[in-house]
Specification:
Distance between the termini of chain C: 50 Å
Number of strands of chain A: 10
Largest sheet of chain C: 2 strands, antiparallel
Shape of chain A: globular
Distance between the termini of chain A: 42 Å
CATH class of chain C: Mainly Alpha
Helix content of chain A: 25-40%
Strand content of chain A: 25-35%
CATH topology of chain C: MetI-like fold
CATH topology of the domain at 4-94 and 168-247 in chain A: Rossmann fold
Structural class of chain C: mainly alpha
Shape of chain C: flat
CATH superfamily of chain C: MetI-like
Oligomer: heterotrimer
Largest sheet of chain A: 6 strands, mixed
CATH architecture of the domain at 4-94 and 168-247 in chain A: 3-Layer(aba) Sandwich
Strand content of chain C: under 5%
Number of strands of chain C: 2
Order of helices and strands of chain A: EEEHEEHEHHHHHEHEHEEHH
Order of helices and strands of chain C: HHEEHHHHHHHHH
Chains: A alpha/beta (252), B mainly alpha (281), C mainly alpha (300)
Bound molecules: adenosine-5'-triphosphate, magnesium ion
CATH architecture of chain C: Orthogonal Bundle
CATH superfamily of the domain at 4-94 and 168-247 in chain A: P-loop containing nucleotide triphosphate hydrolases
Largest interface: B-C, 84 and 80 residues
CATH class of the domain at 4-94 and 168-247 in chain A: Alpha Beta
Number of helices of chain C: 11
Structural class of chain A: alpha/beta
Strand order of the largest sheet of chain A: 6-7-8-3-9-10
Number of helices of chain A: 11
Chain lengths: 252, 281, 300
Amino acid sequence: MEGTILKTFNFSANFGESQVLKNISIEINRNEVVAVMGPSGCGKTTFIRCINRMHELTQGATVNGDIRVDDNSIYTMNLIVLRRKIGMVFQHPNPFPTMSIYQNVVAGYLLNGIKLKKTERDEVVERSLKRVALWDEVKDDLHKKGTFLSGGQQQRLCIARSISMNPEILLLDEPTSALDPISTAKIEELIFELKKNYTIIIVTHNMQQAGRISDRTAFFYLGELLEFNDTTELFINPKHEKTQNYITGRFG
Amino acid sequence: MVTTIKYREFKNKLFKVIIILLTTVCTLPLLLVLYKIFREGISAINWDFFVNLPKPVGETGGGIVNALIGSVLLILVASVISIPLGVFTGIYLSEYRNTKLSYFTLLSVDVLTGVPSIVIGIIIYLWVVKTMGGFSAISGSIALSVMMLPSIIKSTEETLKLIPNTLKEASLSLGVPYYRTILKVILPAGITGILSGIILSIARVAGETAPLLFTAFGNPFINTNILKPISSLPAIIFNYAISPYEDWHKLAWGASFVLIIIVLFLNIITKIAQRKWKVQF
Amino acid sequence: MPITTDQQIKGINFSEFAFRKILFISAISIVILLFCFFLTLVASSLPSINTIGIKFIYGVTWDPVSDKFGGFPFLAGTLFTSLLALIIAIPFSLSVALFLGEYFRTGLISAIFKNIVELLAAIPSVIYGFWGLFVLVPLIRSLETKIGVAPYGVGILTSSIILSIMIVPYAVSLTVQVITLVPADLKEAAYSLGATRLEVIRNIILPYTRSGIFAGILLALGRALGETMAVTMLIGNSHIVPVSIFSPGNTMASVIANEFTEATGKIYLSALIEMGLFLFLVTTIINIIGRSVIKRFSIS
Ligand SMILES: Nc1ncnc2c1ncn2[C@@H]1O[C@H](COP(=O)(O)OP(=O)(O)OP(=O)(O)O)[C@@H](O)[C@H]1O
Ligand SMILES: [Mg+2]
């Protein structure tokens, strides 16, 4: 399936009085990896949190404009349906501390009260863990607590938890910023793998990472979308002076 | 100059000695009370003590079975009332931190903590005993549940506040409804703290006497009907302690021993639980 | 993707709505509960307020049989025992608070004493009363015999001593809380100028924590005013205005405890409830002031 999966229309977001996203209009295609870049505080996290309506959990947070997924406005869609369609992985790994590795992977099912047969559940766990390349490392410790794993393993577990629900879009907020190079490499490989089945929007500060894994890159600056282009094009031939400064490292 | 420094040093040392001395004195009452209760209490208890009813003055072999059953029943019913209400209120306070209602609820909880237990007894008498036309176990339980509420609410609120927000977001982002997120992710993550608060509140009301005086009242017989008056450990201690009879004093010492053991046990349990079963984030 | 039918979504939406309502109702019911406490006490005190009026406060005769309801002896007894208990408890509380909050903040000794203080608070009031009756009362009696006053044993002093034991842990936990909040750099600045620990305590810690300590003492006083069982067992229950620390007396809480179930007349019962209202109001005000001071202290 080709075509647009996510589209924002003149989208703005506020925390109380301060506007942190200004008139963002962007179209994202199915099965592409989009990197979201920009200096700290420019609204990257806010942007992806708006897509699954996490933003509104914050007190005083408001939005303007519209976001459409598969041509349905996220504001008329049922919140639960929306969030099952759009998975999210956070900057810091956050496995459920009371659950085992096994339970963490199928947490979406357990917590939603979706009944699965034991064999089905085992299958989901194995498949999801294999996809995030964690299966071999944890298959003998499935009943240990998820919080006992290393940071990198925890983050892959969190990704497994998201993809076990078969979302269509995966939002990743600097998923490797808290990890060592080896774990980072593993997660990058994984994203490359996942791209076949999912649309991925990934926030990153790391230029090389964006270059390695993304098809297109969106550059945000002070809440505005300055540039959105093929990643290589954007890096080699930035249209905007601010983008140029950022990718050449001339930002404070 | 030298003398002043020496003098200052001396005053400094002296002050420290005084602090240590006064602090040590403060521990004496605990030791003295425990010593007395253990000495008098252990000799007062035996098998009969736990299975017999109190006997009239002059007869030996009386027990406190009615008070034991009464205390258990009173606390059980009080818990059934106060735990859901307290935990839900605690959840509200940690979830809606800056609303007007949470401000007033917190204020009410603080005030409720300080309301003398005898006053709670009066109110429950007016509300329940007068309405029902007589003393009853249920009125005693209601009074105790009011006393349990503040500490359950506070411990729930304080525990849940410390749970990282990212956990809640992780669950919501999986499409888990809000109520399931709270009940299945947030509450289990804070279960140790909440349970500690509940157990401590039980330990506290297990010894509460004043609010029972004119609610549960007392009963020389075994009663399991919550609509009838019922005995309790603290009530039996009070009544026998102020009686003029040696035999009854003995029963009171035994009952005090049992009560102290229960209270100490519950306190130690929470200490261990807080250390051992702490959920790691 | 796990399929979610409209039917299921309707169910979820309803549960969601119900859950939020339950939270809201729980929270508001606590406020309503307290408010109803107040209303009930006021309404049930009205007969007494209307018939006895202001004499309730200064009248010295409490004789329900002849319809005399002067509450002054109990007011005096309550204030006398509570203030005396406070005077006894303050030096001890401050010492323990400095011990735990400054001298021994961590380690085994700190843990032991912390636990002892906590257990001190865990012992039920009725057991303190019982113990006081059989251990403290004989001691006080022999003291009274020695100095040649009427050897009641029970009375203001006995009650105050037990009360002070009961409020020390409470005052300590609040005071330690504020003492540990003193910024370390303030203390270090003083130490680097050559101050001794005592001087740091006197010139830095105490001035800095003054309002917090005041709040702790105030809240401890609130505790003492309403404490019932131990005092009831040790005060002597005589309806006189106490004139010395050795006289027996009575407090409002213990009069309620002793006479409430026997109060037959309408005015009699109402007069006892009026005392309850008084205790309720005083402890409420004390708690609101004390807590807000401590809250402000821990934020700044
Ligand atoms: N909860 C909040 N309340 C108020 N303002 C907020 C809140 N969270 C973020 N902001 C503000 O919104 C702006 C955008 O924040 P956001 O977290 O989206 O930035 P970011 O691009 O993700 O930055 P970083 O690269 O540091 O993660 C910032 O100026 C920030 O100060
Ligand atoms: Mg961010």
